[in-house]
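User: I'm new to structure prediction. If I give you an amino acid sequence, what do you actually give back? Let's try with this one:
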Amino acid sequence: MSCGNAHETDCSEVLDHLYEYLDQEMSDDARTKFKEHFEECHPCLEKYGLEVAVKKLVKRCCGHDDVPSDLRSKVMMRIELVRSGRPGAEGDLRADVSSDVAAGTEAPSA
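Assistant: Good question. You get back a string of structure tokens that encode the predicted 3D arrangement of the chain. For your 110 residues, that looks like this:
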């Protein structure tokens, strides 16, 4: 997505890292750069606003479910593998979650 205007920070970079911004998982310099982008780019600001609303809705509706610790550990381990760039890590996670569901050890549904 791009608004068609030139920005110091490209729209695609902002949208690729939007969740890191939302979760405050980036440096202060990067956050400042993204904030400046939102101030000058209406389409990205709208996308940001939509994601904030979705995140609040999910927290309100699903934020009280306990996740089994073994499932949480598996997910966190896979996230680290994906971040490290290991090929196929995303598929491994789907297989593990599928096997947990088949075994009846998945997280309770809301």
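You can read the tokens as a compact description of the fold. Here is one thing that stands out. The longest helix spans residues 42-62.
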